[in-house]
Amino acid sequence: MEILYRDADILLCCKPPRVLSTDEPGGLPELLRTELGDAKAELRTVHRLDRVVGGVMLLARSAESASELSRQIREGEFRKEYLAVVSGETEPQGELRDLLRRDTARKMTFVADQPGKGVQEAVLRYVTLDRSGDRSLVRIELETGRTHQIRVQFASRGLPLMGERKYAVREDGCELALWSQRLRFTHPASGETMDFSAPPPAVFPWTLFRDLGAF
């Protein structure tokens, strides 16, 4: 488990893919307690990554820190950037804006035609960083944080992420190519601006592109 930063109030790490974000057996907080050698360490999840998504993730180490970080998330002060490898050629840059509906029974999210109960607006912006054949490397900044938002918004436009098996039938021979690259927020105690990033692992399809650390 790679810990990027820790102090008395917060801890940042790289969540491995296939690990739950929540505090349950085998979840990220439990793995971090093992890494810290403290089975009773207080670690509170303030934002989540899909189980299949890895990358930079922040946890609070007190109720006070969790409350302040949650406020920043609610009020749009907490910024999240992702890298993704998309199947298809994306525009040089763009904004995706949709209405999304979550089907809790099926554990899936769908684009809705019109407003209604349980329908929420979803907005993201992206920049195309590189291309390899018919695959595009994009950097994504979320304006909203809906469940499966990135995956659904791109797949609904015929641009599914590589490794996508929920919203498209893909046989890419890889894990979902979505990575939490960067978090920017205000330290809940000191008020200092915090900015952390980490590149995706050197495995396919990330290895199709040049040095990802440059992005």
What are its keywords?
11 strands, 13% helix, 3 helices, mainly beta, Pseudouridine synthase
Secondary-structure map:
Elements: E1 2-6, E2 10-15, H1 28-36, E3 44-45, E4 54-60, H2 63-74, E5 79-87, E6 93-103, E7 108-111, E8 119-132, E9 135-142, H3 149-155, E10 178-186, E11 193-197
Short account of what is shown:
This protein is mainly beta and 215 residues long.
Walk me through the structure:
The chain is mainly β and 215 residues long. The chain has a single domain, classed as Pseudouridine synthase (2-Layer Sandwich). The protein has helices spanning 28-36, 63-74, 149-155, and strands spanning 2-6, 10-15, 44-45, 54-60, 79-87, 93-103, 108-111, 119-132, 135-142, 178-186, 193-197. The longest helix is centred in the N-terminal third of the chain and has 12 residues, at 63-74. It is globular and about 45 Å long. The mean pLDDT is 94.
Mean pLDDT: 94
Task: Supply the CATH class.
Answer: Alpha Beta
**What is the CATH architecture assignment?**
2-Layer Sandwich
Question: What is the gyration radius calculated from CA atoms?
Answer: 17 Å
The level of helicity is 10-25%
